[in-house]
TrEMBL record:
Protein name as annotated: Acyl-CoA dehydrogenase
PROSITE patterns: ACYL_COA_DH_1
Acyl-CoA dehydrogenase/oxidase N-terminal domain sequence ranges: 6-118
GO MF term (any one): acyl-CoA dehydrogenase activity
UniProt keywords, alphabetically: FAD, Flavoprotein, Oxidoreductase
Domain Acyl-CoA dehydrogenase/oxidase C-terminal intervals: 229-375
One Pfam family recorded for the sequence: Acyl-CoA_dh_N
PANTHER family on file: ACYL-COA DEHYDROGENASE, ISOVALERYL-COA DEHYDROGENASE, MITOCHONDRIAL-RELATED
Catalytic activity annotation: a 2,3-saturated acyl-CoA + A = a 2,3-dehydroacyl-CoA + AH2
Co-factor(s): FAD
InterPro entries, A to Z: Acyl-CoA_DH_CS, Acyl-CoA_Oxase/DH_mid-dom, Acyl-CoA_Oxase/DH_mid-dom_sf, AcylCo_DH-like_C, AcylCo_DH/oxidase_C, AcylCoA_DH/ox_N, AcylCoA_DH/ox_N_sf, AcylCoA_DH/oxidase_NM_dom_sf
Length: 397
């Protein structure tokens, strides 16, 4: 096992860290309060090649490996969860799915502009009546000649007002349950689509999340991703990639909590000494450090499996579950270490705590991942290769 990063990965980390320090950290408090961020930041993310990390060069990406994607997510979430969430849905859930399941035409038309950051991709799986229980969805797509007619509603969709392309899941045959769900590439400009932002969210306030409505949206057959009935499988494979980015981002959030807490421990004095000298405060710092190191190892282990092109649902789920739980706890402890000052926006820890909650819910709740891990251990669930695995990663390809 080699735990060293390559020169290219080191450079990516430096670039992403500088971007975070120069462009996110000075502005995030304002963006978080106002509930939006300057759209110019999208262009900056794209210009730096951040929207195509892990996508092969021939499809407009930078051809780096999965652990490079993890590095990017860790550094961005150290600034704010909003930006890592954007990479998770745009790259992890949407672009990577096009790479895995798309036809050559679909890759040229949708993946290439997404990898270059010219177009934004989002992921529409959740519905008002279907979150963890995906098969409870009620959206339908009915075949009509060379089109499908899509009707339904999605909710809690990240980038909902900003995305140009959506990967949407709907029933083409409800009687077949999981095997009756199909995936579609939907363009915002198709008539019958509307979206509405969810206001006053608890966290990730600088990012857009909302509802999507489809009313008789005519989708050309060539926009079907995969075969009819493959939608559930595609959604779960997409989540393998999305969850990896969420886990990597959580590592960055733990680091942000550690950095803020260590600084405050040295500054604040009680009972004649810096609070870092009190053992109960040290306990919280030690837990954060342990969570940080363990989460990182789980993330890079999942990344190594992905780089080899093998099924990694189990390792990715474990990394996502643990890293997000550690981050949620680290944010709570960082807040506690700051005492009353944690409550003010002079310090970032209240934002960290608010932001740490959504990742424990999206892309599989804590409970869903707990069940998955238990079922793997008990032998009730197995990992089998999919009919279309992403190939082993080859540098630059
Ligand atoms: C900020 C944010 C952004 C999001 N972005 C997207 C997006 O871009 N695209 C998208 O499709 N979705 C998105 N989501 C939705 C997210 O994926 C869902 O919220 C998530 O899957 C959980 O679904 P739910 O909220 O309906 O909870 P439910 O599934 O209703 O669960 C409610 C509670 O019951 C528990 N529970 C459910 N089933 C079981 C069980 N079998 N055993 C034990 N406990 C169980 C859950 O763990 C949870 O605690 C986003 C959510 C948030 C908060």
């Amino acid at each position: 096992m080699d735990f060293r990063f390559t020169d290219e990965q080191d450079l990516l980390r430096k670039t992403a860290r500088k971007f975070t320090d120069d462009e996110i950290v000075p502005n995030i408090s304002k963006w978080d309060t106002e509930g939006k961020f300057d759209p110019v930041i999208w262009k900056r993310l794209a210009d730096l090649g951040f929207m195509g990390v892990c996508i092969p060069e021939k499809y407009g990406g930078s051809g780096m490996d999965y652990n490079a994607l993890a590095i990017l997510c860790e550094e961005l979430e150290r600034g704010d969860t909003t930006f890592r969430t954007a990479v998770s849905v745009h790259t992890g859930l949407n672009s990577m799915s096009l790479l895995q399941w798309g036809t050559e035409e679909q890759k040229q038309k949708y993946l290439v502009p997404q990898a270059k950051g010219e177009k934004i991709g989002a992921f529409g799986l959740t519905e008002p009546g279907a979150g963890s229980d995906v098969a409870a969805m009620s959206s339908t797509a009915v075949r009509d000649g060379e089109h499908y007619v899509l009707n339904g509603q999605k909710t809690w969709i990240s980038l909902c007002d900003q995305a140009d392309h959506f990967l949407v899941f709907a029933y083409t045959d409800k009687a077949k349950k999981h095997h009756g769900i199909t995936a579609f590439i939907v363009e915002r400009t198709m008539p019958g689509i509307s979206s509405k932002a969810i206001k006053n969210k608890y966290g990730i306030r600088a990012g857009n999340t909302g509802e999507l409505f489809f009313e008789n949206v005519r989708i050309p057959v060539e926009n079907r991703l995969g075969e009819e009935g493959e939608g559930f499988k595609i959604a779960m494979a997409s989540l393998d990639n999305g969850r990896f980015t969420v886990a990597a981002g959580a590592v960055g959030l733990i680091r942000a909590c550690l950095e803020a807490s260590v600084k405050y421990c040295h500054e604040r004095e009680t009972f004649g000494k810096p609070i870092g000298k009190h053992q109960l405060v040290q306990q919280m710092i030690a837990n954060m450090e342990a969570g940080y190191q363990m989460s990182r190892l789980l993330v890079y282990r999942a990344g190594e499996l992905k780089n080899r092109g093998v099924r990694n649902t189990r390792a990715t789920s474990l990394a996502k579950w643990q890293a997000c739980d550690f981050a949620n706890q680290a944010a709570d402890d960082a807040f506690q270490i700051h005492g009353a000052y944690g409550y003010s926006d002079d310090y970032p820890v209240a934002r960290y705590l608010r932001n740490s909650k959504a990742p424990v819910i999206y892309e599989g709740t804590r409970e869903i991942h707990t069940i998955m891990q238990a079922e793997y251990v008990l032998g009730y669930r197995q990992e089998k290769p999919l009919n279309k695995m992403l190939p082993a990663w080859t540098p630059g390809e």
